[in-house]
TrEMBL record:
Its EC number is 3.1.1.-. PROSITE patterns: PNPLA. This is Patatin. Coiled coil: none annotated.
Length: 521
């Protein structure tokens, strides 16, 4: 079960964990689509027209319409590149939105008929067009084939529990290796709007697992937290893709969370209104659905950085209004959002407020694009030399280049190595001069090593301190030979994960690999 080829290297080769999350919101997916198109264009300006968002993010997550966008950005074509580029998202919604959510007649008789249908006969839309479209686009592509890791929440109405479709989980169990089309149909099945979705999967033993799914937003509408949770599990589980990353080191997370807009400022509801609602009132209030709005917004404020707009009013704030006018308005909202100040949520009010000196969202995305580009290049460079493997003086150089200082950066730069040897070698290999120097060297070589090694031991211990093999900034491999066991011993970052007894002090490893017979020690 191999993943399609992607140019993104795992976080173990970089400094950051990169996460993109996209909220739900039906036709309002046009708004994050506009933002994503801008971000991808900035990345292409830096790295070439062929790059895509899937080349930069370790995880892309989304629920409802965000789950659909996630699949669009990560599903591979026959050349193992994304089926859609980010600039294709808005045209996709403009073309297919009116067929997924066909506009209803606005006369009073039709409104009553639609209300009765949604209360008694089933969801507002039959979902046939969406199912057909996704099956046509995604065919039989499965979760394990996405070009980068994805996390898409759903909710199983039969088991009454969330089901998270995660690339990380599918590596361990085929139970959730579902078709991407089935996952997208499921996460889009918002109650009262679209029907629940049923499908089955098989594990490696051909055992069948059934799913009865609806929109994951009813339980996990914050895909950012779900994605971070999945990553944290991998770190705790010692996934080699997250080597040398601490579970709670959230400073290394670069998270871009995109909203589809809300109507919080409009404040459509209040306690006096809700106090009078029965079941019908909670389900339908004018053109709105209060219960669904509550589900959608209940967890959206947990993320402290988020590109979104909480000032939407009227039909622009709706999930399913697909008139030509509203589609154009949504596109304009996305473009205007780029020009708005970068904001963070005020937990006292629940509203987004400008970040001081944060600039606009457009400027923030340009900064993010640069960070993403630099991280990708950093990983590519390190992946091309995935480990340093040297012996003797090469082992010493290896540790110099990979031992961390107090800022978690290499103790030595490459430029420092020459100066280190020029300054230290005369102490490590002191030269004897005089008439009888050659005779003394010969006698000493017969009775013991040529050099005492005291200077070498002192210099190495002074520089490397208490740093151990597990602390190196990248994987290293340093061979030595055990004279007692008469066998090689290889000090390797890979082996130390399995055998902690090999987690020696780097100073001891360096002194050992430098101990050439007849020379030091």
């Amino acid at each position: 079960m191999e993943r399609s080829i992607s140019s993104v290297q795992p976080p173990a080769f970089g400094d950051l964990i990169t996460i993109l999350s996209i909220d739900g919101g039906g036709i309002r997916g046009i708004i994050p689509g506009t933002i994503l198109a801008f971000l991808e264009s900035e990345l292409q300006a830096l790295d070439g027209n062929d790059v895509r968002l899937a080349d930069y993010f370790d995880v892309i997550g989304g629920t409802s319409t965000g789950g659909l966008v996630t699949a669009m950005l990560t599903a591979p074509n026959e050349k193992s590149r994304p089926i859609f580029s980010a600039k294709d998202i808005v045209p996709f919604y403009l073309e297919h939105g009116p067929r997924i959510f066909p506009p209803k007649s606005s006369d009073w008789l039709s409104s009553i008929a639609n209300l009765v249908k949604s209360l008694v006969m089933g969801p507002k839309y039959d979902g046939k067009y969406l199912r057909g479209l996704l099956n046509k686009l995604l065919k039989d592509l499965k979760l394990h084939q996405t070009l980068t890791n994805v996390v898409i929440p759903t909710f199983d109405i039969k088991r009454l529990q969330p089901i998270v479709f995660s690339s990380y989980k599918v590596k361990k169990s085929l139970d959730t290796d579902a078709r991407l089309a089935d996952i997208c149909i499921s996460t889009s099945a918002a109650p009262t709007y679209l029907p629940a979705h049923y499908f089955k999967t098989q594990d490696k033993d051909k055992s069948t697992l059934e799913f009865n799914l609806i929109d994951g937003g009813v339980a996990a509408n914050n895909p950012t937290l779900v994605a971070i949770s999945e990553v944290t599990k991998q770190v705790f589980g010692a996934d080699p893709d997250f080597d040398k990353i601490e579970p709670l080191d959230y400073a290394r997370y670069l998270v871009i969370s995109l909203g589809t807009g809300t109507a919080k400022v409009e404040e459509k509801y209040n306690a006096q209104m809700a106090a009078k609602w029965g079941l019908l009132g909670w389900l339908v209030k004018g053109a709105s659905h209060p219960l669904i709005d509550v589900f959608v917004q209940a967890t959206a404020d947990i993320v402290d950085f988020h590109i979104g707009d909480d000032t939407l009013t009227g039909t622009v704030a709706s999930t399913d209004v697909t008139t030509k006018e509203n589609l154009q308005n949504l596109e304009e909202v996305g473009k205007a959002l780029l020009k708005k100040p970068m904001s963070r949520v005020n937990f006292a009010t629940g509203l987004y407020e400008p970040v001081k000196n944060g600039g606009t969202n457009e400027e923030a995305l340009k900064r993010f694009a640069k960070l993403l580009s630099e991280e990708r290049k950093r990983r590519t460079a390190r992946h091309q030399t995935p480990n340093l493997s040297r012996t003797s003086t090469g082992g010493l150089v290896t540790t110099m280049l990979t031992t961390p200082n107090e800022d978690n950066r290499p103790l030595f730069t490459a430029d420092d190595i020459k100066d280190f040897h020029l300054n230290s070698c005369p102490e490590i290999f002191p030269q004897q001069r005089g008439t009888f120097a050659s005779i003394r060297k010969t006698i000493k070589a017969l009775s013991g090593p040529k050099y005492s090694g005291r200077q070498l031991c002192g210099i190495i211990k002074e520089n490397l301190g208490q740093a151990r093999l597990r602390h190196t900034l990248m994987n290293i491999v340093i061979p030595i030979f055990d004279i007692k066991k008469l066998q090689p011993t290889i000090f390797s970052c890979y082996e130390v994960k399995k055998n902690p007894s090999l987690d020696a002090l780097l100073s001891d490893i360096c002194i050992s690999t430098s101990a050439a017979p007849t020379f030091p020690l």
